[in-house]
């Protein structure tokens, strides 16, 4: 028989958040080994429960959830989303401008397939949430990565964005709050991106799934609230703010300059209809979630669980010689850097494998987020404080092994001072 190969369309598609390193972790778990997972923002798996009222509403309406809904979603649910856009100061949104999906992920894929022809370019940040790059490439387009500047708290580099716009550029993706860096973008920077989109007639895809996961009193501005003469596609959902990842409830809002995008909107409608509808039980959670008590505010308060775990993980990481990290202002992640002089890593996927095998800690390497060098990794600070402490102690011990392996301990002491006395590792 002939070998059956995957489609050539997958040649430039990867999603290392659930990639080969995770598969190895599953094998180790099957062998009875306990793995501390810092790889994925699966909120409910770490004891963050969804609000009781949205669970009750889904259960109460289960009998009514058997039929298909409208392909864009139930009217009441879309009306609640429309009212939320009004709270976010996004003008001109109607019920018909809202599409409910099986998570924002489905809608990202749908929106790219409706837009792109072979060779079309989309500007995507680096580092990025890798589904954006994968969706662009799978739809036949080309993801062109613009730089975010770590020295400036991971802000997008406006000059780099402008330099990468070509006649083939159709759109720009802005992930704010940002995954994987935890950055939150100020209004003045967002306005500069909008100005570029206006000048070059680009669509702005605004990924705002973490718009309530905010720390230290900062506020979030929806990009679509900043202009009416640019086309915006805004992605959001219940997964993170309402700890409901498995319910698969996301939405997409079309706003701004729609009159020139009628044919694109026809494409969105067509693809939306082809998948019939998103899951209906989850749609019953939307109205209650958006209109109810916002318990996320308790978690991100100064003494809230998420804030405490963010602060703890940042301190423990930056106590390690040769590790620097911009402290997250939003979202659930940080993206620490390994000084390449101290840790001369050539293959960061192998680094992640080695950490997993040696210390039973699962991370995602920086290149898994389309970062340009093997010198970063992403940390999820969702595990409870004890597990976070155990995990980062193990990372510290592993990096101590790396310094000894490469003979950089003395250099690390000269650059960063004497490391804190090693703690006795507590096996969990």
Number of helices: 15
Mean of pLDDT: 93
The coarse silhouette is: globular
Number of strands: 15
**Spatial order of strands in the largest sheet:** 2-9-8-7-6-3-4-5
**Unreliable spans:** 421-428
**Separation, N- and C-terminal Cα atoms:** 48 Å
Computed Rg: 22 Å
Helix content: 25-40%
The main pleated sheet reads as: 8 strands, mixed
Structural class: alpha/beta
Order of helices and strands: HEHHEHEHEEHEHEEEHHHHHEEEHEEEHH
Strand content: 5-15%
Please characterize this protein's 3D structure.
The chain has helices at residues 20-30, 52-60, 75-87, 103-115, 130-138, 158-163, 187-200, 262-274, 280-283, 286-291, 296-299, 305-318, 348-359, 385-406, 409-416; strands at residues 36-37, 98-101, 121-126, 142-149, 155-156, 169-175, 203-207, 231-237, 250-256, 323-324, 333-334, 337-338, 361-362, 364-365, 377-380. The strands form 4 sheets. The protein has an 8-stranded mixed beta sheet. Strands 11-15-14 form a 3-stranded antiparallel beta sheet. The termini are far apart. The chain has 428 residues and is an alpha/beta fold.
Give the gist of this structure.
The chain is α/β, with parallel strands linked by helices. Helices cover 37% and strands 14% of the residues. The radius of gyration is 22 Å and the shape is globular.
Layout: helices, strands, pairs:
Elements: H1 20-30, E1 36-37, H2 52-60, H3 75-87, E2 98-101, H4 103-115, E3 121-126, H5 130-138, E4 142-149, E5 155-156, H6 158-163, E6 169-175, H7 187-200, E7 203-207, E8 231-237, E9 250-256, H8 262-274, H9 280-283, H10 286-291, H11 296-299, H12 305-318, E10 323-324, E11 333-334, E12 337-338, H13 348-359, E13 361-362, E14 364-365, E15 377-380, H14 385-406, H15 409-416
Parallel strand pairs: 1-13, 3-4, 3-6, 6-7, 7-8
Antiparallel strand pairs: 2-9, 4-5, 8-9, 10-12, 11-15, 14-15
Helix pairs in contact: 4-5, 4-8, 12-14
